[in-house]
Amino acid sequence: MNKVAITGKIGSGKTTALNYFRRAGHFAISSDFIIRSIYENEETRSQLLKKLGIEKKNYKEVIIEKIKDPSFNYKLKKAIYPIMGRLRSKRIPTFITKKNIFFEVPLLYEEKLERNYDKVIFIKGNFIKRLKRTLIKGKTKEYFETMNRYQGADAIKEKLSDITICNNGSKIDFYNSLIRCEKEI
Fold first, then answer.
1. What is the model's pLDDT at position 96?
2. Which one of 37, 66, 102, 124 has the largest count of C-beta atoms within 10 Å of its C-beta?
């Protein structure tokens, strides 16, 4: 069993890749799902908002606005990462398996988390295609640009990763790349 991190910038295709590996029979743990579960749970959401000094009313809009400030972004990560770690560890199988475990880790290199994984898949895509994918999901261009600003350079991620997949073509091309990737791991 390998612990495999899937990383890439916003809109690169991390979630699509994670869902592919899940359907292929592997274990898959989504950072997006974990964050959503934190905010959906009244107790954990209240704890987080208290640490951040944010009122419950319109908290999503407030966080999205404040995240542009690097000091708030740092404070948010310091508050949310320990919660994410606890929830992630609860989802890791405790029994022996030959299946791989895939983790979606958007800021893998930025947060120096790569040592926690056996393999790293980096998914890259050009700016315009990633922006279009993000807008289709209902996010704003401003949100995309804010999140993109916190993510490191593709060249560095590509050099540090075990496998790089370029996601600038069709969905069929991307899925074929994932099939080849699965065979490599």
1. 61
2. 102
